[in-house]
């Protein structure tokens, strides 16, 4: 997969956009499901493959597996699987993505295209709790670093064993959980990873800690190739990166993949009127700040990724 250190990347890598958004657009019901998009690994893997494929065709250099909310415990209790079947299902998320990349590149890639990477998604513990705490990180007070490591270990084991090119530790609201994740990563010395925080304002991660402190703490991990933010409004990205400028280590790039900036209202759903400058338009400023991994999260689809690609790589 090549060297992914910042100094070895000559132009930004394009990530994919939201997976769940596309599954919902295809008519699948995810809202209110404790397994969210991970259930579709069990019920309709072809739909996931189709979304991966659409992002590859839109120019994504990295696709992210449908395992954000996947856990052995969740699969056992919500799908009635055995422990071993749950492990297999988790691993199938990576296998599906790898197969899609293989099919996509089988006829040969265009000369300007690098071989797409598969990032194994790891969401926060709060996503499993399914009580909104993935956006506050408030469970961190009740859990030790060791407990958080124990929670994440089986999932990372599966993603690594299935051959993910790197691990995507994403939408992490809590610094304690981020510390647990980077400690845990040392148990998998061959794995590279990115760690991306969910943030609530221009300088703080969702739990309220400063983003700059979070960046400084996790940047000690030599297995990280990028650190950054995801699933925040696009307008928060630049101020967040600037707030932590002095704390990022040279060979760790910024990774950013905001959502569309539309607000979520529990009663009425997505409020679409707040969309400001397009996310592709803002992306050039993120590159100036040192972002080398750029994509989208919720409500960002294949067309936005294609626009991002032409903004950052030029039209082909
Ligand atoms: Zn998101």
Automatic annotation (TrEMBL):
Annotated membrane-spanning segments are none
| Gene3D superfamilies, per database record | Homocysteine-binding-like domain
Write out the GO MF terms.
metal ion binding; S-adenosylmethionine-homocysteine S-methyltransferase activity
Q: Where does Zn(2+) bind?
A: 231, 297-298
What region holds the Hcy-binding domain?
Answer: 1-312
InterPro entries xref list: HCY_dom (IPR003726), HCY_dom_sf (IPR036589), Hcy_S-methyltransferase (IPR051486)
State the Gene Ontology BP annotations: methionine biosynthetic process; methylation; S-methylmethionine cycle
Cofactor(s) this protein cannot do without: Zn(2+)
Q: Pathway listed for it? A: Amino-acid biosynthesis; L-methionine biosynthesis via de novo pathway
Q: Does the keyword Cytoplasm apply?
A: no
Q: Which PROSITE patterns does this entry report, sorted A to Z?
A: HCY
Q: Does the keyword Magnesium belong to this entry?
A: no
Q: Identify one Pfam family in the record.
A: S-methyl_trans
Where does the source fall among the domains of life? Eukaryota
- Keyword list, A-Z: Metal-binding, Methyltransferase, Transferase, Zinc
| PANTHER family found in the cross-reference section | HOMOCYSTEINE S-METHYLTRANSFERASE-LIKE ISOFORM 1 (PTHR46015:SF1), ZGC:172121 (PTHR46015)
Protein name, please?
A: Homocysteine S-methyltransferase 1
* Organism name: Chanos chanos
